[in-house]
Amino acid sequence: MAIVETEDRYPGAFDIIECPVCGSEEWTHLLYQGVFCARCNTQCTLREPAGDQGFIAEFDSKYTWSVDHGEAIPETDEYGARASGKWLGTEADGYERYWFSAYADHVDEHDCEWEPAWDRETKNEDD
Ligand SMILES: [Zn+2]
User: Fold this and answer.
1) Centre of ligand 1 from the C-alpha of residue 53, in Å
2) pLDDT averaged over consecutive 10-residue blocks of the chain (127 residues)?
3) Residue 43 domain-assigned?
4) Distance 26 CA to ligand 1 centre (A)
5) Pfam family of this protein, just one (predicted)?
6) Disulfide engineering: 81 pairs with which of 44, 52, 61, 117, CB 3.0-4.6 Å?
């Protein structure tokens, strides 16, 4: 139920969010269960950022499937396999990604080599 309300509060958000695990832009909304990546099943939840226009997106790899070019978010004891990011803006003006990181970056920064799909793609282009 909360997801339905959340999604309605951020129109267009799922048009611009890329899956950090596999890079897909297709999201499936399962009523009462949440929003999942159509390709790798990573869960995405939106919430409101304090004092800014935009939204915070939380990604959870708990249900992520193994797919080609997908790299599941690293798991941590404290937070599970999660990453989050903040997007600023409105649907009319467009949203822009402000920051993004895996929780593993904060709890075990030396071991976390995971990067979201869009950063991996940039690297491949550079090679
Ligand atoms: Zn995905």
Assistant:
1) 25
2) 54 93 95 92 93 94 95 93 96 94 81 88 57
3) yes
4) 8
5) DUF7567
6) 61
Residue 24 falls inside a structural domain: yes
Residue 89: domain span: 2-116
Measured in Å, residue 64 CA sits from the centre of ligand 1 at 8
The total number of structural domains that make up the chain: 1
Tokens 């992520």 belong to which residue? Answer: 64
User: What's the pTM value of the predicted model, to 2 decimals?
Assistant: 0.85
Residue type, 20: P
116: left (phi > 0), else alpha (psi -120 to 50), else beta? beta
